[in-house]
What does this fold into?
Amino acid sequence: MSFEVVPQSMPFADPLPLRSGASIRDYSLAYETYGTLNADKSNAVLVCHALNASHHVAGVYAGQPKSEGWWDNMIGPGKSLDTNRFFVIGINNLGSCFGSTGPMHANPDTGRIYGADFPVVTVEDWVDAQARLLDALGIQTLAAVMGGSLGGMQALSWTLQYPERVRHAAVIASAPNLNAENIAFNEVARRAIVTDPDFHGGHFYEHGVVPKRGLRIARMIGHITYLSDDVMNQKFGRQLKADDLRYSTQDIEFQIESYLRYQGDKFSEYFDANTYLLITRALDYFDPAGAHGGDLRAAFARATAKFLLVSFTTDWRFSPARSREIVKALLDNRRSVSYAEIDAPHGHDAFLLDDVRYLGVVRSWFERIAAELETSR
Amino acid sequence: MSFEVVPQSMPFADPLPLRSGASIRDYSLAYETYGTLNADKSNAVLVCHALNASHHVAGVYAGQPKSEGWWDNMIGPGKSLDTNRFFVIGINNLGSCFGSTGPMHANPDTGRIYGADFPVVTVEDWVDAQARLLDALGIQTLAAVMGGSLGGMQALSWTLQYPERVRHAAVIASAPNLNAENIAFNEVARRAIVTDPDFHGGHFYEHGVVPKRGLRIARMIGHITYLSDDVMNQKFGRQLKADDLRYSTQDIEFQIESYLRYQGDKFSEYFDANTYLLITRALDYFDPAGAHGGDLRAAFARATAKFLLVSFTTDWRFSPARSREIVKALLDNRRSVSYAEIDAPHGHDAFLLDDVRYLGVVRSWFERIAAELETSR
It folds into this structure.
């Protein structure tokens, strides 16, 4: 069993200005910490989450032995990111539905539930909010920031928005921006949610309903893009649910259908529809090269951190080629970069799974950071 | 302008037994023919259609100059499949919404619109129905059968169901069966349609509505899988619709979103929801190796036709690897096979587009067949 952890919440009264021009005030951020902050506060590691995750990165809650955090295989005492050496912070982003202020909370200006009126947030806004949490915790500089997928984008953005506050950045299964196909899948998922009659323009809370039909479709699409063709064929192939065909367009015939419907149903029970819209939009918008005419090299000129990039060969959502774009832009700026391309069959999901080479690379990288911390004392 | 054509319809009173165990009677098949059947009836070529197509394969309708058939670039006087030499037959499959008997027609047993009660049809059933049309037209043997994508599956199935009636088969951008990912995308599209409240269990006609929300989502998903990553990035990339970001989760920000919504809207105006379910299911079920324990070589032992296989490098829906499986199975049976793998950026859609190498390969193949016909006279 993993170690016990306790979720915390930090309130912020002051307005946080957002990239959209709007701002948000009287919000709170849910977070967890593991390990001990050292005396000179130099061993903090911030872990950023992806679409369907939260501040509950590692450990379990008291009395809930199966409540492991989403990166519990990576983070903990003696693990790749060793909480005996590092003070690890997990944070839930603004607009999420797992504890931080989001669309299902009340707007302090109106007293009504935000719903679709929750301001659109960007990766940059999230990083600003994360920086305020560090301020509140008295941490000036991060030993490292780390994230996978959308979390990797936040780690990248940290090195550009607060270069002086982050010494290392681990960017895993990520990309410098979404391509047209990525945006396309996000848009189909959003349309499925928004056109569900139970969405009610994003104010479904008032109607006592949830746009589950749309959420199910969104999650099914997501799952297809998380898995590789290989692993899908290996796990499901053309296996039938029953011994014989039923000759039906609506009943389940194939195991892959059963799997996807189950994933969709489960997701629609707990994920907030407005949060799904916000998070996919934050993904769409992220594009640090955009402000430099598409020149990623120019964008990374401000970064001073040392980087670890990891990609997975069968990840077709954020392919290795996208990670290599980042590696090249960093090398063109003569930055320190370690890059591992892991030959794994699991597609995008690989960043959450156990792979000894992958976990070993991250372990070695953090061991070097720990050694640097020892030396600098 | 292309040549003028006239759609026709052939009624069939006798019941057609279907693979599901059901049967269908008093149905009609819409078809078109181009060119002239020769005296010994040896120059007939049957063209089978894919998901969103019909019997209107080539030419235009009188007074409708923009009504070109879906393969008009391939088929016509002097074209790759030359209607000056061949008698070409286009046929609309059972269950379609473009003229042949389908879910929006009345069930002769009840007098009510079939709707979701239209029997589930398979590729094999379609081929049986096509064979009856040939019988009615007095054609015993096809010079060739040809199709792309799902149409290619029908061409394949012809060579297995009626080996003595088909001398050549052109199988373009197709596969020996769907893999798990293909089925997964079909299932998401079906769930989007079936869970649209306007679907009414498939009997929406009686309610005067159409499940447009579901159809839109289905078509958007389809379009993503028809295009390659390359061509999407080239055509749309991250181009914005307006000069500035709107910071909205529901408004259109990116051109790719605009394109997909337009395609979805257009499709939902004319395509029947029950037909979409039936056709995607026929795709799912097709698996000629299934009856031989998955051994495609054994499945093709009965085929005697000469084959042309064509695939496109960036087609990730039916990748070249899938076509090569068919080529290998045919070669293992010492069958005559020509195979062209066309380096084209357009993804699955390439089979409908102009590519001189592709159109040239098909032209050469049919020229050889025409020469054989001359020799055998």
User: Anything to note?
Assistant: The first helix of chain A runs from residue 123 to 136. Chain A has ten helices and twelve strands.
